Hints:
Keywords: Coiled coil, Membrane, Transmembrane, Transmembrane helix
Coiled coil: 2-46
Number of strands: 0
Strand content: under 5%
Radius of gyration: 38 Å
Shape: rod-shaped
Distance between the termini: 126 Å
Transmembrane segments: 64-85
Structural class: mainly alpha
Mean pLDDT: 84
Largest sheet: none
Amino acid sequence: MLDELTAEIAARSATAKEMEAKAKDAENLAAMHEEQRQAVEKLLDARLEARLKESGKKSFLQGMWLNIISGAFFFAAGVVVTVWLDIGK
């Protein structure tokens, strides 16, 4: 009976060691995935920031030209209306 008990304890001990090794492997794998996730996140953040800077400059220039053109249009319209009103007097 003592031999059976010793064998059972040895078998359970081996199983526990095997499970501990698998748990360590899983932790290492999870850490690698976390490092990869962080690397991809940094890469995407850098790309997004670069696009936002580029888009911001482009948007600013488009807005500036739109303001200049619309301002010139309304200035010209004002001149035309003023001249038209002065001629009608």
